[in-house]
Amino acid sequence: MFEIRRSELASRTGCNPETIRFYESKGVLPEPARTAAGHRIYGPRDVQRLTFILQTRALGFSLAEVLELISLEEQPENCNDVYTLLSKHLSNVEKRLENLNSIKVSLESAIVGCQNNVDVRCQFVGLEKCLT
Length: 132
Fold this sequence. Notes:
Shape: elongated
Distance between the termini: 66 Å
Structural class: mainly alpha
CATH topology of one domain: Multidrug-efflux Transporter Regulator, Chain: A, Domain 2
Strand content: under 5%
CATH architecture of one domain: Orthogonal Bundle
């Protein structure tokens, strides 16, 4: 039988042990079984679940969205619900990218103004002139 402790689970997934504890406390990762001595033990399903959690978090999903995806995973007939959630998330990512591009353009413009010693109010730090 495959049984590992939290430190090994952390090592296998590249996750901090305290993050594993946090996911357990939030119900994203189920409470593990325990040995007779009270040590937490994890199995292959826990490795798979934690890997999924880490991948979805890396894609920017909130914990609530991760929980929703996990619940939908357990009901394969809900493929349309997964599609809807993924599409909504993609739309949010696209909006954030637009905002970041707008910020990038503003910063580039301010940098060019500062480099050219243009006498403008530096909107980012409240200086009368951008310093060179």
